[in-house]
Amino acid sequence: MKISIIVPVYNAGKYLDECIESVRKQSYKDWELLLVDDGSDDGSREKCIAYADKDSRIRTFFNNHGGVSSARNVALEKALGEYYMFMDNDDYWEENNLLRDVIEQIKAQECDMLMFGCTEFWPDGKKKPKPQNVDMEKICNVNKADAIKYCVEKDILTRAVWTKAIKREIFTANGLRFPEGKRNEDVYVTGELLRYVKKIGWCNTGTYMYRKGTGVSQSDQKPSQKIIDDLKDMCIDYIETINRSDESKELKEAYLSYIAYPYAVWMMYTSQVKPKNKRDIQLMKKYRDVLKIDVNPYMKFIKRAYMFVGFDMTIRLLGIYDKVRKLKG
Questions:
Q1: What is the pLDDT of residues 164-216, one digit of tens each?
Q2: Are 21 and 96 in contact (CB under 8 A)?
Q3: Coil, strand, or helix at residue 221?
Q4: In 3D, which of 156, 32, 158, 148 has the Cα closest to residue 99?
Q5: Are the beta carbons of 179 and 186 closer than 8 angstroms?
Q6: Minimal CA–CA distance to 83: which of 113, 115, 116?
Q7: How far, in Å, CA of 77 to CA of 73, rounded?
Q8: pLDDT tens digits, 290-317
Q9: What is the DSSP string of 9-20?
């Protein structure tokens, strides 16, 4: 089974080697690595070419400042694998057997999308370890609605695509692509994946190492109005799509439990913009019923806050929480 690993590259600097070498060191050998340079001017482009020259499993493509989504879409058009995986150019895989374990679990669980854990780490050596005590039986041996709710409840359903191996047909059969020119693109794609896949799986032994504190990732930056608008559009589109669908009540609730947290992030980001856009807040209130879907542990707190102090004050509290969280690192 061939795996296509897609990596958008832009001025990756000193981190790119670690990223690529973590793939080359895999004990499982049937993979291809698609590097899409998006107009780097720091030598990353040349490094991609050099790697492709010395390893035939690595292919390099070039994009002209199209952004992460555009670069990923370029690779999706070229990928040959039965399953797709994604990485960011400054992250890496910790275990040399990650691909082997992922393949074994895909075959054992017969799933369209297999997920695994993520460890966040900082330049000072601090780490937030991957999820522990995940009961795989509650994901791979139950219906899709219950599997999604369990993952949301355990807070292991990351919006990022790089903690997943996804069957090629899910993309090709549904014409699924990353929305270009948008931030929070993974929120959209993961939401669509949940709708399209028939069966979800989990691999306890996989770990994606997610680099934090570089000042580049979206979570390290103050949200711009562009980021807020894109997140707003994705939340609204997803909620309306689910509400209009003819899915079962159980599946609708599972899908909404996924989007509830991004909706709360939209609330939190809005609190940091001055002056507040009153029209946007009124629009946000139109979809506040999603706060009642408190499967995620953070949503339980937010739901209680909303019930006791109201919507506007909950937005303020989320803004305060975010400031404190960033101060603590």
A1: 999 999 999 999 999 999 999 999 999 999 999 999 999 999 999 999 987 65
A2: no
A3: coil
A4: 32
A5: no
A6: 113
A7: 6
A8: 999 999 999 999 999 999 999 999 999 9
A9: ESS-GGGHHHHH
